[in-house]
């Protein structure tokens, strides 16, 4: 019908066509969350309480911003979309991924704060998006807006730019745990491992406490700040716990860190999936190489069976009723592995000491119901025994210019994918935006 | 639902006061008047519009077979959005479809954008009679001559179907972006349903009462309550209404079509029957409450249970003033509802969309 005549410039129906100077035709600045300076500087990774920023005098009244933005627009002045944005100086591109481009920026120095580097993640919306914003982007915004914790990456601000892109201003972080693990020039003491585990468990505990599953715990999603504080990042696969009896997709978590119940296609799972992944990160920190690097789902599962034991009704009541239940070498009783006992882990992870191995075993139990919760893990004696966890500032660091690319390069991978395949990344990224997960309410 | 209400952005940024809400609406209206839109496109007051949008959302949600939770989130988004943007600046049908679409993603039950658009297109369309085309201006629809002729050739009927939702899904996607941006990307909404789930067991609510509470909660999304009070207060208000006030009204007015049936009534004939509470009973909550005890007796509700219930309310430390205020709000909603019809709203919105070419 006459709908093609979208000539008239009224929001929100006109396309990205020439930005008309009508009121409300353009997206407004928003994000009046003040930058919690305390979160950026930090701290020994302790605490556990979110910083309540709501009283900060720095708050911009959203309406106020809108009025100002509006005025700027109607005057047609320089592209200054948002007061806070105007204080962000874009520096250079850090990386480009399937659904976002990341630039390094700085928050301008003010009277009270010095300049802070930030990562500006610009989410592509308009080009080929017939499907609305990608689920990843939405999840990231949704959860990071609510979760504030020293061990979770801080979303400092969100604003929209003139050509209808959503920009997330994220805390800028130097490096990640994967880089540390791979850097053979570094020696990691058990105290260091303890410190990283402590910080990741705190972050994870906070997520679980807020009923959020991360669903993609792996070393390169555990980012490290320049002060050594570890922060959980990449909430593109996160979701809130499902209501009872509502299914979730089992196709999450990067293969090497995926727990057995997901290989069995469990649709109802809990925070134990994150604990399992973190348990494998723990192993990796000690071994300095992935503990179970399967090259296919099947192979991965065989590795799990060999390393941890074959899931059976004895060690995991009810397992055989999972939809994808399968036992490798079922006809060969000799190949069946009993659930590994303590001596096995003591042999492999001798450095962790007895209490460390106890924690590890609780985290990677086959039966998800027997795994500990993040809270219980934080309470184990291991953390309060010598050697004490290293202070974040004294942790081994990956220095230099390479680290600065981190937040950006992270994007080149699809969530749930393993390798930082820098070669083909840009090509693939351009091709398609990630599809929404329409299957089974994942 | 994710996260903790006490540290949530809902509590920090989207819990407003009545004055603030009134102020925001007034500002929008004034701006409209200044631009001359208010005169050109008259719309009923916001209470009426909210009722209308509520029905629209509900019908769309039914077509998409959504659960109550995403619907409630969509309603909240729409409310928040229209506090910051004037209705006259938007295509309300497109907007509310967008709210539903985004809410579905948010509540982890994504619906394909295409099906939202298709359902919305089928649902939101109007018929106009063009048998007397030259007189079209009297419809106050500034339709261009050319458009009408084209339509006529195509349909060859004396009525045309007016479409309100563009076929292109990109429009909705774009709208989603605006919505997120207007909401300051605070997307998690906490709903009262969860509180109900938690307290229905210790309070030993009967199935009948739970149904009534659900209906009251669903109706509460027509009002501004979700913008004013924390979800648990709203939940307790609904329980209060269902347990104390409803039986009283039942007996007083012998009503059987009270709010408890509103869900059923809604789809078929919006605005026809729902919850026409007698104003005598609704004017004053105190009256209703004082009448509660005998009424409850009449309904074989033991007074022991009622007193147990009031003890629970007293001991819970819940803000009773807030509950009374919520109750007033709900009752004034049912008052408005009594005389409400969707005709005025429908026509106003149609005129707006056509007139401003908001497709």
Automatic annotation (TrEMBL), chain A:
* Any GO BP annotation: positive regulation of transcription by RNA polymerase II
Any idea which residues are catalytic in this one?
Answer: 216 (proton acceptor)
Biased composition range(s): Low complexity:
1-25
Residues annotated as domain Protein kinase: 88-383
Q: Where is the composition biased (Acidic residues)?
A: 55-64
Write down the SUPFAM superfamilies for this protein, in alphabetical order.
Answer: Protein kinase-like (PK-like)
What's in the GO CC field? cytoplasm; transcription factor TFIIK complex
According to the UniProt entry, its GO molecular function terms are:
ATP binding; cyclin-dependent protein serine/threonine kinase activity; RNA polymerase II CTD heptapeptide repeat kinase activity
- Please give the InterPro entries that the UniProt record associates with this protein: CDK, CDK7, Kinase-like_dom_sf, Prot_kinase_dom, Protein_kinase_ATP_BS, Ser/Thr_kinase_AS
Catalysed reactions, as listed in the record = L-threonyl-[protein] + ATP = O-phospho-L-threonyl-[protein] + ADP + H(+); L-seryl-[protein] + ATP = O-phospho-L-seryl-[protein] + ADP + H(+)
**Sequence similarity:** Belongs to the protein kinase superfamily. CMGC Ser/Thr protein kinase family. CDC2/CDKX subfamily.
Name the record gives this protein: Serine/threonine-protein kinase
Give the source species: Drechslerella dactyloides
UniProtKB/TrEMBL annotation, chain B:
Recorded hits in SMART domains, A to Z, give:
CYCLIN (SM00385)
Asked if Calcium is a keyword of the record, the answer is no
Q: Which domain of life is it from?
A: Eukaryota
Give UniProt keywords alphabetically.
Answer: Cyclin
User: SUPFAM superfamilies from the entry?
Assistant: Cyclin-like
Domain (Cyclin-like): give its ranges. 55-181
Q: Which GO terms describe its biological process?
A: regulation of transcription by RNA polymerase II
For this chain, the family text in UniProt reads: Belongs to the cyclin family. Cyclin C subfamily.
Q: What is this protein called?
A: RNA polymerase II holoenzyme cyclin-like subunit
Recorded source organism is Drechslerella dactyloides
């Amino acid at each position: 019908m006459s709908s093609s005549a979208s000539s008239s410039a009224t929001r929100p129906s006109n396309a990205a066509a020439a930005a008309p100077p009508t009121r409300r035709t353009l997206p407004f600045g928003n994000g009046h969350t003040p930058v919690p300076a305390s979160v950026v500087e930090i701290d020994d990774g302790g605490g556990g309480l979110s910083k309540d920023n709501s009283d900060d005098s720095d708050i911009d009244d959203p309406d106020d911003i809108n009025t100002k933005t509006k005025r700027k627009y109607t005057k047609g002045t320089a592209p200054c979309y948002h007061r806070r944005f105007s204080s962000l100086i874009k520096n250079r591109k850090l990386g480009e991924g399937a659904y976002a481009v990341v630039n390094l920026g700085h928050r301008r120095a003010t009277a009270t704060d010095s300049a802070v580097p930030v990562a500006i993640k610009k989410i592509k919306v308009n080009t080929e998006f017939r499907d609305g914003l990608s689920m990843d982007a939405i999840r990231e915004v949704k959860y990071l807006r609510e979760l504030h914790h020293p061990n979770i990456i801080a979303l400092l601000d969100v604003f929209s730019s003139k050509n209808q892109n959503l920009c997330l201003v994220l805390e800028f972080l130097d490096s990640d745990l994967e880089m540390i693990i791979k850097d053979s020039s570094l020696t990691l003491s058990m105290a260091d491992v303890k410190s990283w585990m402590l910080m990741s468990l705190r972050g994870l505990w906070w997520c679980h406490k807020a009923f959020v599953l991360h669903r993609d715990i792996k070393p390169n999603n555990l980012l490290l700040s320049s002060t050594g504080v570890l922060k959980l990042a990449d909430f593109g696969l996160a979701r809130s716990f499902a209501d009872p009896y509502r299914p979730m997709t089992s196709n999450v978590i990067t293969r090497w860190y995926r727990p057995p119940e997901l290989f069995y296609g469990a649709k109802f799972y809990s925070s134990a999936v994150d604990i399992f992944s973190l348990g494998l990160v723990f192993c990796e920190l000690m071994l300095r190489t992935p503990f179970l690097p399967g090259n296919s789902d099947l192979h991965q599962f065989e590795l799990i069976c060999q390393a941890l034991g074959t899931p059976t009704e004895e060690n995991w009541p009810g397992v055989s009723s999972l939809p994808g239940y399968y036992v490798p070498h079922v006809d060969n009783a000799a190949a069946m592995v009993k659930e590994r006992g303590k001596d096995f882990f003591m042999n492999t992870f001798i450095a962790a000491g007895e209490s460390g191995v106890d924690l590890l075993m609780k985290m990677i139990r086959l039966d998800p119901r027997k795994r500990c919760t993040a809270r219980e893990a934080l309470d184990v004696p291991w953390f309060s025994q010598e050697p004490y966890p290293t202070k974040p500032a004294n942790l081994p660091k990956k220095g230099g210019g390479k680290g600065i690319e981190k937040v950006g390069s992270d994007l080149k991978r699809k969530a749930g994918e393993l390798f930082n395949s820098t070669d083909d990344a840009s090509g693939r990224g351009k091709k398609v935006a990630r599809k929404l997960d329409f299957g089974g309410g994942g | 639902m994710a996260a903790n209400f006490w540290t949530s952005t809902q509590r920090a940024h989207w819990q407003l006061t009545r004055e603030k809400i009134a102020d925001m609406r007034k500002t929008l209206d004034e701006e409209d008047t200044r631009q001359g839109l208010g005169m050109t496109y008259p719309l009923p007051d916001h209470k009426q519009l909210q009722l209308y949008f509520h029905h629209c959302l509900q019908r769309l949600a039914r077509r998409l077979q959504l659960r109550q939770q995403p619907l409630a989130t969509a309603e909240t988004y729409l409310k928040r959005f229209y506090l910051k943007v004037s209705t006259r600046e938007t295509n309300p049908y497109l907007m509310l479809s967008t709210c539903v679409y985004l809410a579905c993603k948010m509540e982890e039950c994504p619906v394909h954008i295409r099906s939202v658009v298709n359902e919305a297109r089928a649902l939101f369309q109007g018929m106009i009679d063009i048998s007397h085309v030259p007189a079209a201006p009297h419809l106050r629809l500034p339709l261009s001559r050319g458009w009408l002729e084209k339509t006529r050739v195509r349909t060859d009927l004396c009525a045309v179907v007016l479409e309100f939702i563009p076929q292109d899904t990109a429009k909705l996607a774009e709208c989603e972006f605006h919505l997120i941006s207007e909401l300051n990307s605070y997307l998690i909404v906490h709903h009262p349903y969860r509180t109900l789930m938690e307290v229905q067991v210790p309070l030993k609510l009967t199935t009948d009462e739970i149904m009534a509470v659900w209906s009251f909660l669903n109706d509460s999304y027509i009002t501004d309550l979700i913008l004013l009070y924390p979800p648990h207060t709203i939940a307790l208000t609904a329980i209060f209404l269902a347990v104390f006030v409803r039986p009283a009204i039942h007996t007083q007015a012998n009503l059987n079509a009270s709010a408890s049936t509103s869900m059923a009534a809604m789809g078929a004939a919006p605005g026809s029957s729902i919850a026409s509470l007698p104003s005598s009973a609704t004017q004053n909550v105190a009256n209703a409450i004082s009448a509660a005890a005998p009424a409850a007796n009449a309904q074989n509700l033991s007074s022991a249970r009622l007193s147990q219930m009031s003890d629970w309310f007293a001991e819970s430390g819940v803000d009773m003033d807030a509950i009374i205020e919520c109750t007033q709000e709900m009752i004034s909603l049912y008052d408005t509802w009594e005389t409400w019809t969707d005709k005025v709203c429908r026509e106003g919105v149609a005129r707006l969309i056509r007139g401003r070419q908001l497709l």
